[in-house]
């Protein structure tokens, strides 16, 4: 699925929960999907214009913040269902932390460890946030399909954060073991 189509999914998905301004669409995406998806205003407003032109959304007046309110149309609901049914393709990975670590031999002493400590701390914070979200979620007897699917996405975040935490801790231990002989006066190998 092309990046543009995924923006459509995010925008149409947000509007499927109710009419809102472009600002409110961005806020809904940030607050609800922000743990695994983001869109900028520069992506949302052109997308809204294209969706309006195609008939997938329509303007329904002015909002509280003086912005134009958009509403999903039946054609937009059909478009959302079609986009959601398309096969998912992942873009090539781009991980700035791994890029820095791969070339980390050029970093000053301790900088790689500092990067890993930051990654460890971010993963730990994410796990705390996911626990808070899970605690706030009301799991009812016979929960809805929507609740179950949202729980699945929360579970993914938890698994990824735990894996990142474990990886960061193991990586810190690996670097500490390399530094141990250096601390005892032996020359440190670079490379």
What is the strand tally? 3
Number of domains: 2
Name the poorly predicted regions.
Answer: none
Quote the average pLDDT.
86
Helix content: 55-70%
- Number of contiguous helices: 7
Cα separation of the termini: 40 Å
Q: State the secondary-structure class.
A: mainly alpha
Oligomer: single chain
Overall, the morphology is elongated
Q: In angstroms, what is the radius of gyration?
A: 22 Å
Strand order in the sheet with the most strands: 1-3-2
Query: What string gives the helices and strands in order?
Result: HEHHEEHHHH
State the major sheet: 3 strands, antiparallel
Strand content: 5-15%
Brief summary:
The chain has 191 residues and is mainly alpha-helical.
Describe it:
Residues 94-175 form the Transcription regulator PadR C-terminal domain. It holds the Pfam family Vir_act_alpha_C. This is PadR family transcriptional regulator. The chain has 191 residues and is mainly α. It has helices at 3-15, 22-33, 41-54, 74-85, 96-102, 111-136, 145-183, and strands at residues 20-21, 57-62, 68-72. It folds into two domains: 3-85, Arc Repressor Mutant, subunit A (Orthogonal Bundle), CATH 1.10.10.10; 96-183. A three-stranded antiparallel β-sheet has the order 1-3-2. Strand 2 and strand 3 form a beta hairpin. Helix 1 packs across helix 2. The longest helix is centred in the C-terminal third of the chain and has 39 residues, at 145-183. The relative contact order is 0.09.
Fill in the keyword field for this structure.
Arc Repressor Mutant, subunit A; 3 strands; mainly alpha; 7% strand; elongated; 191 residues; 2 domains
């Amino acid at each position: 699925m092309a990046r543009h189509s995924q923006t459509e999914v995010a925008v149409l998905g947000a509007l499927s929960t109710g009419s809102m301004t472009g600002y409110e669409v961005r806020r809904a995406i940030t607050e609800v999907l922000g743990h695994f998806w983001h869109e900028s205003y520069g992506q949302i407003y052109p997308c809204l214009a294209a969706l309006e032109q195609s008939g997938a959304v329509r303007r329904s007046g002015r909002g509280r913040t003086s912005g134009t309110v958009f509403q999903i149309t039946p054609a937009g609901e059909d478009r959302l269902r079609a986009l959601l049914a398309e096969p998912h393709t992942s873009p090539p990975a781009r991980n700035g932390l791994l890029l820095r670590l791969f070339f980390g031999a050029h970093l000053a002493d301790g900088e790689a460890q500092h990067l890993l400590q930051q990654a460890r701390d971010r993963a730990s914070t994410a796990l705390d946030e996911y626990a808070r979200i899970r605690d706030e979620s009301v799991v009812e007897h016979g929960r809805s399909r929507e609740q179950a699917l949202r729980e699945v996405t929360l579970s993914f975040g938890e698994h990824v954060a735990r894996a990142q935490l474990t990886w960061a801790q193991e990586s810190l231990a690996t670097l500490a073991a390399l530094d141990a002989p250096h601390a005892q006066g032996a020359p440190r190998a670079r490379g």
